[in-house]
Amino acid sequence: MSRSNSEKLVGLTLTTSIYDIPGVWEVHAQKLEILGVRNVGQLLAHLPHRHEWLRAQSGIADLQPGVISSAEGEITATKISGFGRKARFQAVLHDGDGRLDLVFFNQSFLQKKLHVGMRLRVQGKPTKFGPGLQMANPLFTILEDTGGDAGGIEDDAYRPVYPATEGLASERIWEIVKTVLEPAIEQLEDHLSDEFRAERALPSLSEAYRMMHAPQHEDEVKAARRRLAYDELLMLQLGVHMKRAHLRRTLTAPALERTPEIDERIRARMPFALTAAQQRVVDEISRDVALTMPTNRLVQGDVGSGKTAVALDAMLLAIAHGHQAALMAPTELLAEQHFLSITEMLSGSSVRVELLTGSMPSADRDTVLAKIHSGDVDLVIGTHALISDRVEFHSLALVVIDEQHRFGVEQRAKLRVKGGKDHEGETPHVIVMTATPIPRTIGLTIFGDLDISTIDELPPGRTPVITKRVTPDQRKTVYNWVNEKIKQGDQAFIVVPAIEPGSKGETRVTDLRTLQKELEGGELHDVKIAALHGRLKRDTREHIMHRFRAGKIDALIATTVIEVGVDVPNATMMIIEDADRFGLAQLHQLRGRVGRGQKPGVCVLIGNPKTEDGIARLNAMVETTSGFVLAERDLEIRGAGDVFGTRQSGTPPFRIADPMRDLELLQMARRDAAGWIALSPTLDRQEDAIARRRMLKAHGQWLGLGDVG
Ligand code: ADP
Ligand code: MG
After folding, report:
1. Residue 455 CA: which ligand 1 atom is closest?
2. What is the distance in A from the centroid of ligand 2 to the CA of 403?
3. Which of 579, 590, 631, 648 has the least CB density, counted as fewest CB within 10 Å?
4. What are 279-312's pLDDT values in tens digits?
5. pLDDT tens digits for 303-339?
6. CATH C-level class of 260-290+306-434
7. What is the pLDDT of residues 7-27, one digit of tens each?
8. Residues near 352 by beta carbon (within 8 Å), at least 6 away in sequence
9. Is the dihedral of CA 414, 415, 416, 418 positive or negative?
10. Spatial separation of the C-alpha atoms in residues 523 and 151, rounded to whole Å
């Protein structure tokens, strides 16, 4: 080496290429690139996923055979046996209470290095050896000796274990990190001030990275992790709050005041008295929409809690003020359902309601589009066709999105800009309804920009649905029982995972065609059965649903098109074939289709789950009917990122933070971000510069923050 290491390290920065780090071989640099590490900064960010304890954990007498551990003691004897390459060096280690034999194969040079009287720390796996224990080829550190260098482990308390790759072991990565750690962390700029950190007991960024890579104590790893997790959560919250502040600054929505007169008119339209929970949410919404600040509220309530009534209430409020309202559903079937029930509720009123879906004949669609544009319709119900560019509203004041988990953040953003043609800069109030309750943690993280209302009460007279789990060989019994109940006037849903039989070789699942034939020729031969699935034409679907609702069909064999929103109070049985094939949220939704009237509902899960997750899901369904409990359970089974499509919606997953475990940190980050943005809405003060840059890098794009500030 022509230049000394320290000389070359003088010019080291966070952007120095890993190829330029002194002592790093090109092959190793190439492997680091495979791990996504190209420069010193990225190397710092390549965090160990765990740490190995290196200090003596126990006295020699407490060592267990077969358990990797470390111990310390004094060398009391040494011996060399054999010759040349076969030579074996042995040493005896004592710590007052016990004796440990060390054996080093093919390392005869050690006789020059290890002497009687030296203190040694060793790490390895002890095995039984005569009456005592032996460690073969242990890693060791000389504790009291000058001149001798360590023969394997360093004098650290912990050794980091890095995500490694073939040809680049964790130990190599650690050696490389060690050469740059000190000079690199010195250059880290902290986006949090000393005072800010002191108030929250957070270490500096430099300290955090030092403690992550080279901790002296287990608590240091914890403190470092806490800081880095906080940073991740803070960055997301800053982004979300900045976006929200921007919207509030630049956009206004029509103020929809709820006068006593309007209130009375709306009440008169409702076929029932609202539950206390519904009333509370109606009040929360009314308070929001009375202001010109655009509402962005999430209403969550378990299946059957009566969200539609709350939505309708808000929409009627907008219409009472001479504006338009829109209700957006995730599927055509659900949009059709809403259309039918809402037109029924509003019959005899002057409210003009229209349906808009993607599969409408284009002539019909054009007519509806024209009415939306001219203001000749007050309430539009539809699918995401509602946010297509062709739809221009006359004066859209309020949008309700039903069953949020199907809609991503971007779609919501799109709605934001759809005001009305005569209302430049105006945006509608947005209310999002979800029947898949979002665990609080996820809600705060992903929907940090939403206020949340909860309908935590079911309408009176409901009894919880009874859930039974059976194996496929009990099918006959199940359908005989279904037959009996139908004879007594009940109706059933039968849900299958597929429409057509699968091709040969595929795992067999129950399909609609085969099952329908079987049941029509068997247990349900004198029962009126119809099939319902997404491939049918809209007219046909509507016709079938209409007949089912009217009691002219007894059993509906369907795919998950009926998953959300379908509301037929007389249906009391939900039979789900191959139930383990469905997700937990789906199963809960399906179960929510029964027990909606005065008669109690029963849900039968037929399945023979092969996977642990499948078993866990079915067990969870039998154990609880609470959507909230199930949502938390789902989070445990599937992991945070995957739940409710948040992954698809483009939210970057966290590397360090875990919204479930770090709830307190999350709440702190959320408060801090809110306070920070209140002081500095676009983060353009000089002291915000680093935070702003880091936040935009992490979240600017998906939040569409490019134009803010
Ligand atoms: P969700 O969309 O929350 O699953 P819905 O709005 O479809 O629930 O309501 C479920 C059923 O409860 C519907 O049949 C509805 O008419 C009825 N319902 C809603 N609110 C009330 C209430 N306050 N009193 C009685 N029935 C209600
Ligand atoms: Mg609903």
Report:
1. 3
2. 7
3. 648
4. 999 999 999 999 998 888 889 888 888 999 999 9
5. 888 999 999 999 999 999 999 999 998 888 888 888 9
6. alpha beta
7. 556 688 999 999 999 888 999
8. 371, 376, 377, 378, 379
9. positive
10. 77
> What's this model's pTM, rounded to 2 decimal places?
0.65
> Nearest ligand to the C-alpha of residue 403?
2
Task: Look up tokens 């949090």; give the residue.
Answer: 192
In this structure, the residues whose C-beta lies within 6 A of any atom of ligand 1 are 272, 274-275, 278, 301, 303-309, 435, 459, 567, 569, 596
Mutate to test the pocket of ligand 1, among 269, 312, 456, 567 (most ligand atoms within 8 A of CB): 567
Token couple for 467: 């859930």
Burial level of 81, CB count in 10 A (0-12/13-18/19+)?
Answer: exposed
Give the residue among 123, 137, 112, 142 at the shortest CA–CA distance from 52: 123
Task: State in Å: Cα 233 to ligand 2 middle.
Answer: 32
**Best probe residue, ligand 1, of 305, 462, 590 (max atoms within 8 Å of C-beta):** 305
Query: CB under 8 Å to 656, separation ≥6 — which residues?
Result: 47, 225, 228, 229, 232
pLDDT in tens, 593-602: 998 877 889 9
CA of 335, nearest ligand number: 2
> HEC string of 12-60?
CCCCCEHHHCCCCCHHHHHHHHHCCCCEHHHHHHCCCCEEEECCCCCCH
Superfamily grouping for domain 55-156: Nucleic acid-binding proteins (2.40.50.140)
User: What is the position in ligand 1's atom list of the atom closest to the CA of 303?
Assistant: 4
Ligand 2 centre from 172 Cα, in Å? 56
Residue closest to 95 by CA, chosen among 56, 66, 64: 56
| Residue whose CA lies nearest to ligand 1 atom number 10 | 304
* 310 alpha carbon, closest ligand: 1
Ligand nearest to the CA of 458: 1
> How many angstroms is it from 303 CA to the middle of ligand 2?
7
Cα of 278 from ligand 1 centre, angstroms? 10
pLDDT tens for each residue of 431-479: 988 876 665 555 555 555 667 888 988 888 788 899 999 999 999 999 9
Condensed to tens digits (0 to 9), the pLDDT of residues 250-264 reads: 888 999 999 999 999
- Looking at residue 333, its pLDDT comes to 80
Could you report the per-residue pLDDT of 204-246, keeping only the tens digit for each? 999 999 999 998 877 889 999 999 999 999 998 899 889 888 8
How many angstroms is it from 310 CA to the middle of ligand 1? 9
Q: Which residue has its alpha carbon closest to ligand 1 atom 17?
A: 306
Which two three-digit tokens encode residue 378? 């007050």
The CATH code of domain 466-624 reads 3.40.50.300
